[in-house]
Design a protein that fits this description.
By secondary structure, the chain is an all-alpha fold. It is built from 4 helices and no strands. Helix 2 packs antiparallel against helix 3.
Length: 135
């Protein structure tokens, strides 16, 4: 080390730094706006991938027909599969968004914990009275 210090014409100095504690921040809860932004971003990317994949398929199929090389056809098949997978992901994205929206609708608006203490005959009588009130 001393030879390097001499070669670079520097003097070594020791720096003692206190380690700073790492503070983990809790991420905010996802809002509908966040979900919507993520959906739009992902959907746009998938559309872009599908369109570029279609262009690549057209090009590689043209090349495969001109050269009649098996490798070109193999690459074309792989590209077709990749584009097909991207379209499946697009459909899955639609389904996931629908599921998220349905979850929001299904969440209970108010929850009550009720406990009935009594016999089954009393419970049946109470239910019958409630049904008569509704009619």
């Amino acid at each position: 080390m001393k030879q390097l210090d001499k070669a670079f014409n520097i003097t070594p100095e020791v720096v003692n730094e206190e380690p700073k504690p790492v503070v983990r921040e809790k991420p905010d809860r996802l809002t509908k706006d966040d979900v919507s932004k993520d959906y739009d971003y992902t959907r746009g990317n998938l559309y872009s991938i599908i369109e570029k994949g279609q262009e690549a398929i057209d090009g590689i199929l043209e090349l495969a027909q001109e050269t009649e090389q098996p490798r070109a056809y193999e690459v074309a098949g792989q590209l077709i599969k990749s584009v097909s997978d991207a379209t499946d992901k697009l459909m899955d994205l639609q389904k996931k968004l629908k599921d998220v929206n349905e979850e929001d609708k299904k969440s209970p608006t108010n929850v009550t914990n009720a406990l009935f203490v009594g016999s089954t005959a009393e419970l049946a009588k109470m239910i019958k009275q409630e049904n008569l009130k509704k009619e």
